[in-house]
Task: inverse folding
């Protein structure tokens, strides 16, 4: 089935052709016809399958004959980057229709978003948290809403947005049509879809989430300390052009990007601690070729849409298989081809096994010719041969260099040459009644004098907290 056979509005067909689309992808062939008929849709769709156009085209088709000045479609997404991507797709496919779209997400001032509500843009693409912020004000009433789209529903569950989604649903009227897309279908998402959808057209609901068929995957076993050197070596070869490098944490993303820049590689990073302006500039610079490498965390794994991207490098193995699938889904989009390379340290083998179990395939191991991890790993400093207590690690005082004549509490003090006063024995009664009030001690004389064993000497620091002073015996 071609786009023209779907009986789309001529304005949409013109935009489809101008965008370079020729043949619908499988998800587009499955989802667009029932959506054009007004049916609810429930589908599992992997990243890079052409899913965005699968719901954008039916939404635009529905809104073209409607009057303007009221928001009639709401699209919920988990991340800012995905919201911006969907907005761009709406503008591209709807550029001949006159329909307007606006994004609503955090990291940018609210007044511009408020004007979008007040002016009644046709479509709002939003993240749940910022949308709830606007719902606290009267201007954000979506009384004319007809279509609700939930995209990447399982990712919203992973990010803890499920309660926010349920709160959003309480603020909006019951939609006449709901389009529900998720890469996987966990129990919570299945229950949510069941409460929203009416006799939906379903497809791929039982399908296991897998990387796109055009992705070539490879594993590089490498120690943690040699990962940056391996990354640089790969970038120096002719086989890797532009690439997205995924790290597990924001700190790691900063560190890797800084390392690459110091080695002359044009690189930028994108993660949750970056402002929206910085994230937008980094993504735009990567798309334009200003930056060869974009270092990202998983927050961006489902919001980066770069059609010609050929390489994804997993600098760290993700904790869950679903994140791996969505990372590598940044390449081989829309039935193209690409490579996904994963660096695996010995302590990440367990996560790798989980990924291989999830995708049902053992990934091939490979090594970069001419790269020796041992030659680039830092040499561990020599450990001084010091004597320490059994069962404890060396302390700084064990190996600290002492100045001549200096002492520590572990070093025996030399006998002093200064004269000392002779000790004068005191009567037993005096010793029994004497109390060291200046140090907060109280003595006890319950033991008889003479050959009775001596009491153990108290440690420095006085009696224990809360202990009552002993009453001297008279």
Result:
């Amino acid at each position: 089935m071609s786009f023209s056979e779907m009986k789309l509005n001529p304005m949409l067909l013109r935009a489809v052709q101008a965008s370079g689309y020729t043949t619908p992808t499988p998800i587009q062939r499955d989802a667009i016809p029932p959506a054009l008929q007004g049916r609810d849709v429930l589908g599992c769709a992997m990243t890079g399958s052409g899913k965005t156009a699968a719901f954008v085209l039916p939404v635009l088709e529905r809104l073209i004959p409607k009057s303007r000045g009221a928001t009639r479609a709401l699209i919920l997404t988990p991340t800012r980057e995905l919201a911006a991507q969907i907005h761009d797709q709406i503008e591209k496919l709807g550029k001949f229709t006159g329909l307007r779209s606006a994004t609503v997400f955090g990291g940018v001032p609210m007044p511009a978003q408020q004007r979008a509500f007040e002016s009644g843009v046709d479509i709002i693409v939003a993240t749940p948290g910022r949308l709830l912020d606007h719902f606290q004000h009267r201007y954000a009433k979506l009384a004319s809403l007809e279509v609700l789209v939930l995209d990447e529903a399982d990712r919203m569950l992973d990010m803890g947005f499920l309660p926010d989604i349920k709160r959003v649903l309480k603020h909006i009227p019951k939609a006449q049509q709901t389009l529900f897309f998720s890469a996987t279908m966990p129990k919570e998402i299945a229950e949510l879809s069941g409460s929203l959808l009416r006799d939906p057209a379903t497809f791929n609901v039982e399908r296991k989430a897998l990387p796109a068929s055009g992705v070539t995957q490879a594993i590089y076993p490498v120690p943690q300390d040699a990962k940056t050197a391996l990354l640089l070596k790969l970038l120096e070869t002719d086989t890797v052009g532009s690439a997205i490098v995924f790290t597990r944490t924001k700190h790691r993303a900063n560190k890797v990007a800084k390392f690459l820049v110091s080695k002359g590689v044009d690189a930028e990073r994108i993660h949750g601690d970056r402002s929206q302006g910085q994230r937008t500039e980094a993504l735009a610079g990567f798309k334009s070729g200003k930056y060869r490498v974009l270092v990202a965390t998983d927050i961006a794994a489902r919001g980066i849409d770069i059609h010609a991207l050929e390489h994804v490098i997993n600098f760290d193995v993700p904790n869950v298989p679903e994140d791996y699938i969505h990372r590598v889904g940044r390449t081989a989009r829309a039935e193209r081809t690409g490579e996904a390379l994963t660096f695996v340290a010995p302590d990440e083998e367990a996560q790798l096994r989980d990924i291989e179990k999830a995708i049902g395939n053992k990934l091939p191991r490979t090594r970069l010719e001419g790269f020796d991890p041992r030659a680039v790993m830092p040499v561990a400093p020599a450990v001084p041969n010091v004597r320490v207590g059994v069962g404890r690690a060396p302390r700084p005082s064990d190996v600290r260099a002492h100045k001549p004549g200096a002492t520590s509490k572990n070093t025996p003090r030399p006998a002093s040459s200064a004269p000392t006063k002779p000790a004068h024995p005191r009567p037993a009664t005096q010793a029994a009644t004497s109390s060291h009030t200046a140090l907060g001690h109280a003595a006890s004389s319950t033991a008889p004098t003479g050959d009775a064993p001596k009491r153990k000497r108290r440690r420095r620091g006085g009696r224990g907290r809360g202990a009552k002073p002993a009453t001297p015996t008279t």
Q: What stands out?
A: The radius of gyration is 34 Å. The chain is about 35% helix and 10% strand. The longest helix spans residues 80-93.
